[in-house]
Amino acid sequence: MTATLPAADPAAARAHFRDGLAVPSSGWAPGHTQANLVVLPREWAYDMLLFGQRNPQPVPLLDVTDAGSYRTALAPDADLRSDLPRYRVWRDGELVAEPTDVTDLWTPDLVAFLIGCSFSFETALLDAGVPVRNIEQGRNVSMYRTDRQCRPAGRLSGPLVVSMRPVPGSTVATAVQVTGRMPQVHGAPVHVGDPAGLGIADLAQPDFGDPVELADGDVPVFWACGVTPQAALMASRPPFAITHAPGHMFVTDVPDAVYRQL
User: Fold this and answer.
1) Which one of 22, 25, 72, 125 is CB 3.0 to 4.6 Å from 130, fit for a cystine?
2) What percent of the chain shows pLDDT beyond 90?
3) What's the predicted TM-score (pTM) here?
């Protein structure tokens, strides 16, 4: 299934995804917050909650559901089981499937965590005159594991994952200022410049997402990424989990402006 243009309305975007459109959500419903998804059995939920509390930059928690609930205050009419463009299913830390619907896997003991996403500050960057190359190139954002470790929480531990956006050197300061005012969607960059400073060997080989090309004069800028919990799942191996597929986010009804600090 294809759509000619990304929907501008969050409910319309979710309807496309519910009908089976499996595309990265960057550029969809601009001006509205997007969220990463992590779903774990209740027996692991406290560890995930603590992991977010101890690592707020990569794991800024926006909402946590009651056990068994597939509804969120971020979009009350949405269904977390079907309204993302693509999911990942994990068993014992191993990726076993990437479906577009997980209704048949949802059980009464599952707790869903909605985590801030850097797609939510892309509109603010564009409004400030900072180009967003992944949108220009029609690609998923580039994401990389780093050599920095998150603070462990209970049974959960793992490396920091970052997203990278090429930014013209003349607008790097603007990008830092704009995103720094949005800490609930990852905030300011964690690194600017040489990827080796994060232990990244080759920008052309992201661990998640697509390679995004740098234009002349661009500088690689790295933000903490909500795929970090997926790296923790791989390292910590809970018996079962559901997440979003990298770049395939939950589009909420909440305007980005709600998370902008003046």
Assistant:
1) 125
2) 90
3) 0.91
**235 CB burial (10 A radius; 0-12, 13-18, 19+):** middle
Strands 32-41 and 94-97: unpaired
Report the length, in residues, of the chain.
Answer: 262
Q: Any bridge partners for residue 163, and if so which? A: 143, 223
Q: Which two tokens stand for residue 113?
A: 């965590």
Mean pLDDT of 211-221: 96
